[in-house]
């Protein structure tokens, strides 16, 4: 007869060194045939505790983990997993939840399977707590990144938008202008620019006050927005009462017609400053165009600045010629 005592001793030592406890259950009768001792005492239960059935052990499992434990056993019993593995929380006598891992195997595969279900269990609470801390830290980090993205989007809007009118600002105009210049060159298309300045605007401020002046600026901004293609053209406020409208793929004659519409539309628009005060204003507009067949230049920023200067000086000619009118770098089209 073989003496099994040395083997038992070695197994006992190995399990103890690994911090593991051995268990054995009968899945058919539901009985616990070898119950864990160390872990139960770690959790504060004494050896008198009635834990004779698996259901008694399940009663100690966290309600949120129980379905997972049962499913892992069922999968192994069905032969879908080679080993039963599960991580779950057990309740200690004082009510705290402690994480454990269970590894096991059904040793009797002959029908009815599950008579001997043997495994080990060991404490993984420290690891789980660290994982929870890391996942909480990652969640916080992701949240902070989302907030950072939101703030960056706000900053980007502030950096590129005029606060009073919500139109693009001067900086956006230069960025877009250079980009559109490059694109116009690449696609051999014209690019036009209108500079729009409110006439005698100082009088509005002097007569009705600064807030009324702001209202007039906003009314002209609305007119500028109205007719222009929101996803193609760029309408910007580039000075106190000065606007620029960038018109990609638009030749000189079409740009002039749009300027004409804008000039008439602003002059016809009544602007309400108070319940009993309605006023109106006019604008002077300068038009300039980069022709589709012009000479190619690598410095698109400089080329756009030149276009802006041409449109600006045309606008000043419109002022000098009496205001409420259009002047262009190439004169009035036929
Ligand atoms: N209400 C208001 N006024 C502004 C703003 N920015 C600039 N201004 C005023 O706009 C006026 C511009 O006046 P001017 O440059 O002399 O031109 P103007 O009176 O429009 O005359 P012309 O351009 O020659 O027709 C100045 O009085 C500025 O103080 C603003 O954001 N709001």
CATH class of the largest domain: Alpha Beta
Gyration radius (Cα, Å) is: 40 Å
In spatial order, strands of the major sheet run 2-1-5-4-3
Count the domains. 3
Strand count, sense and barrel status of the largest sheet are: 5 strands, antiparallel
Structural class: alpha+beta
Order of helices and strands: HEEHHHEEEHHEHHEEHEEEHE
Description:
It is a single chain. This protein is α+β, with helices and mostly antiparallel strands and 334 residues long. It has 3 domains: 5-123, Beta-Lactamase (2-Layer Sandwich); 131-160; 162-328, Alpha-Beta Plaits (2-Layer Sandwich), CATH 3.30.70. The chain is built from 10 helices and 12 strands. The chain has helices spanning 5-17, 38-42, 54-58, 63-77, 125-160, 170-186, 201-208, 210-227, 252-268, 300-320; strands spanning 20-26, 31-34, 84-91, 97-106, 117-123, 191-198, 234-239, 242-248, 271-274, 277-279, 283-290, 326-328. The strands form 3 sheets. The protein has a 5-stranded antiparallel β-sheet with strand order 2-1-5-4-3, with helices on both faces. It is rod-shaped and about 120 Å long. The termini are far apart. The model has no long low-confidence stretch (mean pLDDT 92). Guanosine-5'-triphosphate (GTP) is lined by residues 164, 197-202, 205, 210, 213-214, 217, 240-241, 319, 323.
